[in-house]
């Protein structure tokens, strides 16, 4: 997947000389996760620049550059590092078109690695979609593998407004064939039905997509697995059409239960399809605790294939909302 990111950036830079890449260690080292490897050699220091360790500074510079003619792609090494520069993104970039009455757009792409699974601890393992998805003016996309990493990033760079592209870092080493060029671009706001099924709709995003798909593949029930791909705007029609067919919805999220992105999906489906549901809308999430560092605890923290399969199976069998593992075991209230 990291090679797909690099290929998307290279193709975008060949297509448009206004595209530039900046961030910590993106040039000479080729990115800490090697997602910008080879760009410096092809495009030079004028278009691929290493920055000081100052997210507020280089993201602010990118906002200004985007408003005055460039299409910057900013890499944030770990999603948490956006915390010190959030004002530049949600207050400046997201609002400039509105505040200027359309005179200035901000064609800015912000990439950030996110998620648990690699032992980076509580301060470097969060998903953080909720930092962005309630901000008008921002689009938010999340990669679930090599093809979505390529296609969503290409669409983001072409977009005339700011887009945040989140990349689950535990998927960087995943391999798959990738369609490149215009045929490989994935429109923002479009979900993908990955597998067909009649018993339940599983809506997943980013790192939970392969988990949901594997859980469905080995189960005794049939699931329609939907990769949401874009969180803002999300593909309401595809999700509603799927749930109308199956009568059940389970949202699979990596983040904590409280305030997760799945609350928006659940509320919309429950509101519009209440009379057609065969069971309560259910969310499978992580508990409301920091991401643990110890490997056994981190593995337990995120939804696993077995846990998703167990939760969905109980929902289908009983028609009732299953309790989460931490509630059953008294581990967290």
UniProtKB/TrEMBL annotation:
Transketolase-like pyrimidine-binding domain boundaries: 1-174
Cofactor: thiamine diphosphate
Gene3D superfamilies recorded: 3.40.50.920, 3.40.50.970
CDD domains registered for this protein in UniProt: TPP_PYR_E1-PDHc-beta_like
SMART domains to which the protein is assigned, alphabetical: Transket_pyr
Keyword Oxidoreductase: yes
UniProt keyword annotation of Oxidoreductase present: yes
UniProt cross-references to InterPro entries, sorted A to Z: THDP-binding, Transketo_C/PFOR_II, Transketolase-like_Pyr-bd, Transketolase_C
Alphabetical UniProt keywords: Oxidoreductase, Thiamine pyrophosphate
Entry-linked Pfam families: Transket_pyr, Transketolase_C
GO MF annotations, alphabetized: magnesium ion binding; oxidoreductase activity
Chain ranges passing through the membrane: none
Protein's name according to its UniProt entry: Alpha-ketoacid dehydrogenase subunit beta
Organism of provenance: Jiangella asiatica
